[in-house]
Predict the structure.
Amino acid sequence: MLKSLLKTALRSLLRHKASSLINVLGLSIGISASLVIYLIVHYEFSFDTFHRDGDRIYRVVSKMDFPDAVFRNCGVPVPTVKAVREEVTGLEGETFFITANQTKVGVVEDRASAPKVFRKQQGMIYADNEYFRFFGYRWLAGSQEKALAEPFSVVLTESRAQSYFPGLAPSAMLLKHVTYDDTITVTVTGVVEDIRQTTDFIFQEFISLGTVEQTGLKAQWGWDNWGSINSNSQFFVKLLPGVSPSGIEEQLVQVRKRHREAKDRKDDTQHFLQPLPDIHFNPDYGIFDSSPSPVHKQTLYGLLAVATFLLLLGCINFINLTTAQAAQRAKEIGIRKTLGSGRAQLMLQFLGESFLLTVVASILSVAIAQSLVDLFRDFIPPGVTYASVFQWHVWVFLAALDVIISLFSGTYPALVLARFQPITILRNQMFAGSATTRGTSIRKILTVSQFTVAQVLIIAAVVVSKQTLYSINKDLGYRRDAIVSFHVPWSFDAWQWSRTAGKSDLRRFTLLNRLREIPEINTISLAGDPPASNGTSSTAMKVNNGKSIVETMVEIKYADTSYFGLYGMKLIAGRNLLQSDTTREFVINETFARFLGFSNPIDAIGRSIQRHGMIPIVGVLADFHTKSTHQAIKPLAYSSAGKSSFMFHLALKAGDPDSWKVALKKTESAFKEVYPDQNFESRFFDETIAAFYKTEQNTARLLNWAAGLAIFISCIGLLGLVIHTTNARVKEIGVRKVLGASVTGIVSLLTREFMMLVLVAFLLASPVGWWAMNRWLQDFAFRTGLSWWVFALAGVFAFVTAILTVSVQAFRAASANPVDSLRTE
Amino acid sequence: MIKLNHIFKWYTNSFVKTYVLRDINLEIKEGEFVSVMGPSGSGKSTLLHIIGMLDEQSDGEYFFLEEPTHTLGEKARSELHKNHIGFVFQSYHLIDDLTVYENLETPLLYKKIGASERKSLVADTLDRFQIVGKKDLFPNQLSGGQQQLVGVARAVITSPKLILADEPTGNLNSAQGSEIMELFKKLNSEGTTIIQVTHSEKNASYGKRIINLLDGRVTSS
């Protein structure tokens, strides 16, 4: 039975080549998109799901409330750890570690030869023994109980160990030495296997926490300070079974109450327990200090929606074409029924056909997935490659998807087909020749929904692109072209190990003088971050505005005398900053002045801000954007402070890219002379700004593709329907031509109905698109308008594509010789 | 075998009842060879379809093998016709996508007959109708006569008690037609009940009994 069904199914697919091709193409686009999106979603959700008792492991995080800002931090004040260990009940264990910055590592082979040097090593943490119990490492040498018990010991992962001591067995690596920043020597006391599963715990080198206490690091990490929270300090707790996180959170409040300094003031810090699976997704806290930003769950849901839409469109094609062709299958159905087939058997047969078609589409989509992965490489996480397709769970997913799709798209047509009464068919009153078959109205509804989805996607794509262009090209309040900036190290590398931490490095002034000699550079500024950058440093400021004392959070930036000129920022009142080593005066922005109650910026000049002493406001800057257009402009103050200036800004000759190369080359060689150990990494300012909109640009690209594919799938579906109608109406066309109808008349007769459907879809898509995109735009403090032409564009595009598709076939049918069509009877 | 009591069939079209069959009373015994005759539109095919349970009467009682079919559900009726009735059509109605062999096999599949028995039944039938050489051809590769031969072969392969034939020779030339009629005669002599609808006196003469229909009524039987 099965074999026979399969055979008929295959033959029927081959017989209706056009519609099979349309169906396979439409479905395979949807399936390949779903496949790639499944890979992404599966990958992101597989992070750290494998830890034993992972459901009881939490990270302790902090939230700080300030007058008009809330800060969240994934760390805790260091002394919290000891207090929790001693005072909190209901915990099975705790582990504390500090994620370290990039470090220079020397591997000592023997005393005679110079150590092997690895610059900028990453993935180091200062950890305790408990860490390995929490996150389940396998030991190749050494032991979990003892490895990190002593200061100046280190545990390495197998891969890291192999890069340091190539060819040695793990046990032979024990007692070898490694130096950090040429200052401190530690002993290898253990080697663990790398974690093979997907994880955010990508650490490679585990230095005993005791090391911190023996060195200057202790001061850097605020070892005894209840008031400072560093995102490098990571505190994980494991709850006893049955203990609720909220109970622990309450105990944490008590711990703070007992220990914190400045008890006279209200405690603005609160701790929460963050579940392990939340770490990979929660943007409030981030993953770890040096990890990439957390994954945006909304984006994943958006991707799922795109996949669903594309699949839906493919399914609609299938339903439409199959029911449209029902008449052609009617004879077979009638015969089978007279031969004794029940309705169930027929339904099974048609479902089998849709399953077969879906399987063919899936096989094709596995091939298409390769190009999709390449095409969206920078959108897809690096852990997902085309090779990820070849995992057992992907095949299970595909098989399940095939079953769902074939049930979804096959059930309705199968019902329609199996319902045919044999008698009507066999009486030779078959309606194969008539254009009005059962289910026409359902087909119309489905086609309308297809084009509605396609047009909503087009509207979305246009609006996202429009907003991105608007954001990138908006007058942000400063010049952005031909400006390059780069960092210099803000201290000697070794400072963190020495007990006299914080001694400033003055080499940057040497570099400044060197750069002044390069003729290709117009202006140089040595200051803080550029006007727009990712990082923010804010502080609470109090100002007496003459009536009362106003307090607010203010973003702090550092400039020098040439900074405002270099960036073309406008002073609308007062004067430029004077050069100084530490903050002596402020230039504030217009928003801050307005916040203080001065509608005329001039009035702010001369007022003083309370910071370690009273500091006068000497100038007011016209407002400018420090962040993307998502964010409103907030109060801001610039001061000149040579001690806090570690960033160079170079204005190059505008419109002369050749000279930029020369300038950069010369700058780099000057940089290398002053900082021989450092890499020179510069960035054009306009690129920094464009990078703010990377998400939007990616979204725009994704939407462009989704919209394009949606309209493509819908149009080939339309083509299938037109082919069918023209075939069904071939006699009518012949008669009309004999009666004197013109080709254009017949083309318009054949296409009018379809065009009406696209038009109805446009009327539906416009308000839906307007609503959705209006909501999306609310995320931007500065946004482009939803102009009428966005909708017109989407409508015209869909209309023109559809009419082109339809009229080609219609024209062919209309220009056929009527004699041929009429003779066939 | 077949007993029809006061069978009516009508269609309701814009509130007007159009009668196709009016008060048909008929009894057909096992082993008969009956020809239904009458002009176009007299209700011959409808009668045949009702007997074959492809269509349902609007009113009246129909007993098939003593079973009151008018009280049975669709499933039970489909079971009856699957097991006891074979159809032969004017336009052959073979499944275009299946070969001769597969067309013959299809009713056996629906009767859930095992693979080995199926194989031998199809082989026997191919042999009996002398179409072994055609078994891998598709219907459109055969002449009309050959197609109808396959049609008859398919109708008898399940050894039905009753064969219903709706103008079986209507699309055939006379030589092919008489070949098919001879076949029916032979089947009837072997015990199969046959009811055929026909326009041709010659074909009717193969049968033992003629039922004449006019405007939905039996005029003679």
Notes: Residues 105 and 180 of chain A are 5 Å apart (CA to CA).
